[in-house]
Design goal:
Layout (H helix, E strand, L loop, with lengths): L3 E2 H8 L3 H9 L7 E3 L2 E4 L1 H15 L4 H12 L8 H15 L1
């Protein structure tokens, strides 16, 4: 399992620090650990961040990204929010291209 500091993840994957801050503020990064005063991201976190960046690149707002990530990580298989359901269809069409 690979681990990176916040700065390393930002530089290596070209993820702006504000996106990393936003991700942490959502409380969805349960695997991010603080080691010796620095945040450490593991493979699962980096995969989630990749999804977040793809959503941002496709034009999702920060609120939509957060909602999508909460749905993705929830135990409820049925999205309740129609807007998010439509966005999920957009993602499926985008991925199939």
């Amino acid at each position: 399992m690979r681990q990176m500091t916040k700065e390393e993840a930002s530089q290596h994957y070209l993820i702006p620090m504000d996106i990393l801050d936003e991700y942490e503020s959502w409380g969805l990064c349960s695997t991010v650990k603080q080691v010796m005063g620095q945040w450490q991201y593991d493979d699962q976190d980096l995969e989630r961040l990749s999804t977040i960046m793809a959503l941002h690149d496709m034009g999702f707002t920060a609120d939509e990204v957060e909602s999508y990530m909460r749905l993705l990580l929830s135990d409820d298989p049925q999205p309740r929010d129609t807007e998010i359901s439509l966005k999920l269809l957009e993602i499926e069409q985008y991925v199939q291209m």
